[in-house]
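User: structure tokens for Enoyl-CoA hydratase/isomerase family protein, please.
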Amino acid sequence: MAELPNCQALLLERVEGVLYVTLNRPDSRNAMSLAMVEELRAVLRAVRGDQAVRALVLRGAGGHFCAGGDIKDMAGARAKGGDAYRELNRAFGSLLEEAQYAPQVLVAVLEGAVLGGGFGLACVSDIAIAHQGAKFGLPETSLGILPAQIAPFVVKRIGLTQTRRLALTAARFDGAEALRLGLVHFSEADDQAVVDRLAECLQQIRQCAPGANAATKALLLATETENLGSLLDHAAGQFAEAVLGSEGVEGTMAFMQKRKPKWAE
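Assistant: Done. Predicted tokens:
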């Protein structure tokens, strides 16, 4: 079991194979400070090879997910010049990359403000559950800046046409519209419905073998970058390894014996 880092801007709780990661700066609607970015990256590194962590649930404290970048960090970077801004911005892009490729299933629970950086985090989740009353948006251009690190992930999530509209108008929209756009998978009417949907999704994840899930996630992401023929060749080799591996043997035996596999017990 991986040792988790000490965090000031995050709350961490491990329950039944799920690591709950809560952005914990409620006074600023969980604005994304550089310290929070580095803590999130440290958590992802810590659990990367830990198959005991089946899923990561990312949410915010105090009724908001994340209201975007931290203005105090930006003000501090101004005194240091352009390189400081570049490094600050790129660090968040690195977080998004690392979250995108985490071997665990990443579940985002989206309530309240889901803006800027919070919007970006939503776009790298495997499963996104929104409260219908959540407020989504890309406000950067209304502040005279641009969604530099977020934009590629938003385009991958909802397509270029819709991203252009949202980024160039800074329009705000709710969970129902987020569902229509394909940004989220579920839009729930109230707090209890969000809780129930999260429990249902986690139960479904527990039915899946952790190694098979990690390899499948990597395969799906590779479809965006790899040549089809080489991708299929590689996938065939992975399939053979999986069938002969411990999870494949256990899954097959469980099916034949009409019982749950060990990872689902």
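User: Anything notable?

Assistant: DSSP finds eleven helices and nine strands in the chain.
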